[in-house]
Every structure is written in C-alpha cells, then in structure tokens.
From TrEMBL, chain A:
SMART domains: HATPase_c (SM00387). InterPro entries: HATPase_C_sf, HATPase_dom. Residues 34-133 form the Histidine kinase/HSP90-like ATPase domain. Keywords: Kinase, Transferase. This is Serine/threonine-protein kinase RsbT. GO terms for molecular function: kinase activity.
TrEMBL record, chain B:
The keyword Hydrolase applies. This is Phosphoserine phosphatase RsbU. Gene3D superfamilies: KaiA/RbsU domain (1.10.1240.30), PPM-type phosphatase domain (3.60.40.10). Keywords: Hydrolase. It comes from Thalassobacillus devorans. SMART domains: PP2C_SIG (SM00331). Residues 123-334 form the PPM-type phosphatase domain.
Length: 133, 336
C-alpha cells in the first residue's frame, strides 16, 4: 500500500481520465496488455455508472504490494441514490447496457475480487481488485 | 498456464504454416483451434493477444505502429469477450431452468394423475397433452359413494407454470370435497369459492363437470364458462352441443351453476374437451367445430381410448406437431 490516487467523476470526459490513470498504474505494477485492457474496461464501467446514475463521485486507485501479493485495488465511491435491488443488478442479462455484457456482472468478471456496499439515499461504494499473476 | 503457453506455440506454428502455404488445411486447423479455445472459455481478447505475441516472434522487426494497432484491436475485443462470457453464463442458467422445469412437469404428472375407473357397460377414453412442458388442462374421474361417476375437465386461461400451479390447487380442493353425492352444480359452486379466494383475479379457470349415474343412465352436467361438450345420439347418428350457463370460476363469490340432465341410451357418447381441441389451427386458419366432430365420427368404431388417441394424432399432424394450446379430450360411451 504505497500510494492512493483518485479521479473525480463529474463529466463524461472524466471517464477517460480515470481509465488513463488506472492504466498507467496497472502498467507500473506490471500487468500485461490483456489485463490492462480489462482493467481499463472495468474502470470505464464503474466511472460511467457514477456519471449516469449518481451524477458525481470518484474512482480511487491503490497499488497493493504485500509480501508475495501484487495487485491493483480500485474503489468507486458516489453519494448518489444507491441501488435498491443489489441482487438484481448483479444478475446477468439485467443490466441497462441492453445485453452488451457489461454492467456490474461484467466488472466482476473482469476483476478478481468484487465487493459492493450500497445504501438507499446515501450512495454506493464498489471495491474491486485485480491480482498480478 | 502451461496449456495456454502450449496453445501459443501451437497457434504460432499454425500461423507460420498458413503464411507460408496459404493452405486450406491450416485454416481448418484454425477453426479447430477456435472451437478448442471456446471449450476452455478463452475469450476473444486472449486470442488476439496470442496472435500479437505470435506475430512478434515471427516478425521481431515488426514496426511499432503496427504493434500499437494490434493493442487497439485487443481493446475493442474486451466487450465482445464480456458479452461472450455473459452468454455462456446465461446458457448454463437456461439449462438449469429447463431441467428444473422438467422435474416440475414430472411432478405435476404424478400430482394430477387420475385413474380411469372401470364401469360395467361404460367405456372411457381420455387424453391430455400439454403444449409446453407443464399442463394447464386438467381432467379428473371420481366415483362417489352412490356409485355414480364424476368427470371434471378444466382449463386455466393461460399456459405454462402459473396455469399448472393453479391446476394443482383445483385438484386438491376436488379431492377434499365429500364423496357423498357429487352434484355438478354443487361441485362448481364450491370450486368457484376456492378459486375466488385463492387465485389472482387475472387468472381464470373454466370447467365442465358431469355426473353419470350407471343405474338410471342419466347424465347431469354443469359448466363454468367452459368450451361446450358434445353429445352423440347413436339412434339418430347426430351430435348435439352440450352446454350449460355459468360464469368462469373465480369471478364472483356467489356464482350459480344450473345443472342440466340428459338420458343416455346405448351407443350414445359424451364428449368433453378443452379449447386446445376446438381451436386447433391449420396455418392461420382456425378449424371449424364440425371438423372435430367429423374426425371423432371417423374413429368412432374404435375402442374409446384408441379413438381419442387417433383424434389427437390427427390434430397433432394437422398442426405440424406443434400444439399451440394444451389439448384434452375425454369420451364416455355407453355400450349396453
């Protein structure tokens, strides 16, 4: 846990900024091209959810380096309306992406660990981790 | 990890081979490679990655711009990969649902099974085939304590699982009625109350109930908005419609079901059916009720069970073996 950096998400353009920063950190950690692309796509998805449903929030990155474990942790935080039916948004085929395979189940597939906490009226926090192999 | 590396070697060799020969053989192997990859849940971006790595090894001097373009291609494939994985997951889920449904269908078959009773001088034929896995039609035979034979035939408006669940309820309420004297009007009145209390108002059940007394050879029947049955007069060689006024089950609490009476002579037949029989379709055309009767007439000389089976086979074929609605046909014939 050496550093943490965040990108505020307010405009659609900020999604690109988050991708860029996330990819740079992933590259530094040592992720290959395929994993970099996957991480970037997951960031897109998280940031777009903030932009579309919460209006504003932030995506934070943290390089993990303890003992023999290296990886990247990403936390997306917003103070939006929250998600009412978590089990529903985590279900395949439900996402509003219209069957484009993404949505939160997509993020879960792209990453190794996935954790979500959401409270109605208070906001949502999603934490994902990708381990370096 | 080692298998993936093996695949990379394999892919590189195949690619080299193809670039050298432009041979169909190599392309066929490429097809095998992609099928093998799918079996191992390899997503498209990984294939592209293998391709890029192979290219780098075959052409160490590959221009940096071309390499960059390959990363661009890889990036565009990520979402396809996700869609592919989602598709796989949904497919598995579908298989699960399908097998669950077939277990339920089997269970329903056991739950709703009814035994054709043996009556001297009366022959019974019955067939009920669901359009989908679960049957929304129901027929039921019961012998009351006075020796009369009760026959119920019912249809839930709607198909599939909800209809089937509804039918199980009907069956159990009927089983719980006292077996003393099963007057059609009383049975339908009681069932109506059960349905009205327990079933969502958007769901309707129609039912025809007949009670045959083998001593007096009288048939009593009532209908709850069900498809009319037919009565065949052997002496005249003529079919008559058999209908009684009565509301569909579950509409209002105190519906009444007037009962009608019919003297049954030797050779006469009582035909009860659901709209899956009368609303058979040939292409876009609904068949006419007369056509059903013609077909019944055609097979009338057969034993009752064979007769209903032949009639079913006829309409199954007419509809290209794809039933649009559950099909139930019950025939009763007085032989002596």
């Amino acid at each position: 846990m050496d550093f943490q950096s965040c990108v505020n998400i307010k405009k659609e353009w900020d999604i690109v900024g988050a991708r860029q920063l996330g990819r740079d950190i992933a590259k530094k950690i040592g992720f290959g091209t395929v994993d970099q692309a996957r991480i970037a796509t997951a960031i897109s998805e998280l940031a777009r959810n903030i932009y579309l449903y919460a209006g504003s929030g932030k995506v934070c990155f943290e390089a993990i380096d303890d003992m023999n474990h290296k990886g990247l942790s990403i936390i997306a935080i917003d103070e939006g309306p929250g998600i009412e039916e978590l089990s529903q948004v985590m279900e395949d085929g439900f996402s509003t992406s219209g069957g484009l395979g993404a949505g939160l189940p997509g993020v879960k597939r792209l990453m190794d660990e996935f954790d979500i906490v959401s409270e109605q009226g208070k906001g949502t926090e999603i934490k994902v981790v990708k381990w370096l192999r | 990890m080692s298998t993936l590396k093996l695949d990379l070697e394999n892919y590189k060799e195949l690619l080299k081979e193809y670039i050298r020969t432009k041979d169909e053989q190599a392309l066929y192997q490429a097809e095998q490679f992609s099928k093998h990859s799918m079996q191992h849940n390899i997503s498209p971006e990984e294939i592209i990655n293998i391709h890029v790595q192979s290219l780098q090894e075959i052409y160490p001097e590959m221009p940096a711009d071309i390499q960059a373009s390959m990363n661009f291609l890889l990036e565009t494939m990520i979402s396809y990969g996700l869609a592919y994985q989602e598709h796989q997951a949904l497919r598995e889920k579908q298989l699960e649902l399908k097998s669950e449904l077939s277990v339920a269908a089997n269970m329903q078959k056991t739950l709703l099974s009814t035994k054709k009773p043996d009556f001297d001088g009366i022959e019974i034929g019955a067939i009920s085939v669901p359009a989908k896995q679960m049957n929304g039609d129901y027929h039921h035979f019961v012998q009351d304590q006075e020796g009369s034979l009760g026959i119920g035939i019912a249809d839930v408006i709607g198909k599939g699982v909800p209809a089937a669940l509804c039918m199980s309820m009907i069956k159990y309420s009927m089983d719980s009625f006292p077996h003393k004297r099963m007057e059609p009007s009383v049975i339908l009145e009681s069932l109506n109350r059960v349905v009205e209390r327990n079933v969502d108002s958007s769901m309707f059940i129609t039912m025809f109930y007949g009670l045959y007394n083998p001593q007096s050879h009288k048939l009593y029947y009532s209908s709850a908005g069900h498809e009319p049955g037919y009565y065949y007069h052997h002496d005249r060689g003529e079919f008559c419609e058999m209908d009684a006024p009565g509301l569909v089950l579950g509409v209002t609490k105190d519906a009444e079901y007037p009962q009608k009476e019919q003297q049954v002579d030797p050779g006469d037949m009582i035909i009860m059916l659901t709209d899956g029989v009368t609303e058979c379709r040939q292409g876009d055309r609904f068949i006419e009720p007369e056509e059903v009767l013609e077909i019944i007439k055609k097979y009338m000389d057969l034993p009752a069970q064979e007769m209903v089976e032949q009639v079913y086979k006829h309409f199954e074929k007419l509809q290209d073996f794809q039933l649009r609605d559950d099909f139930t046909l019950v025939v009763l014939r007085r032989n002596v």
